[in-house]
Design goal:
Blueprint: H1 3-12, H2 34-37, H3 43-48, H4 53-59, E1 60-63, E2 68-71, E3 86-87, E4 93-97, E5 100-103, H5 104-113, E6 120-123, E7 136-139, H6 141-146, E8 161-164, E9 169-176, E10 179-186, H7 189-203, H8 213-221
Antiparallel strand pairs: 1-2, 3-4, 4-5, 6-7, 8-9, 9-10
Helix pairs in contact: 1-7, 4-5, 7-8
Length: about 220
Amino acid sequence: MCRCRSFCCQKLGNHDDPRPSNQRPLRPADPRRRAVQSPVPRLEGAQMKKLTQERVKNLVHYNPATGVFIWTHRKSGVTPGMQAGSKHVTGYIDITVDGRVYKAHRLAILWMEGYWPEHTVDHINRIRDDNRYLNLREATHQCQARNCKVAKNNTSVVTGVRWRSQRSSWQAFVMVSGKIFYLGHYKSVLAAAYARYAAEQCLGFQDCDINSSAKQYIEAHR
């Protein structure tokens, strides 16, 4: 039995439209309310437009092989040759340029390509301070969310698999566009991991999460 086909056809319907088949179509936005409903631009995005590739290259050197930025310009508290940036509590590297704070992984894209990334910049190996260029990719928020670590309180060590004491079984599930789809209950983590991995393949998770915890668990226990 193909879990992937069953899940896609019965739960999602069309692969290109991840919404449930019984969900009503979205109504077009009222143009009279756009000014009220439009989100306020984040301060970081507004600041980024003021910094150019030429300016950042005059101040710091970026090594794409190591992901490290080095100051090349002398300023208060900084001498050429010093490593730029400091680790934020979130795990990302912050670099202050011209009095404003920027994420190092976004600066890396500007330094290398000459433009600010339209979407988020994702760390492929999930290590937030590993800013090597080969470890960075532009990704949508949905794609970045799919490439996440297993939660510390997850006893199954597989994202999308959890223990349900009421039924004494392991439940597999997947989240799509903010909605949870349940994939069934299983006697073992391995069986639930198979169901989770089949859904990931069906939904194209492999394009975002090359380090699937379900896939890793299956390979280690089959």
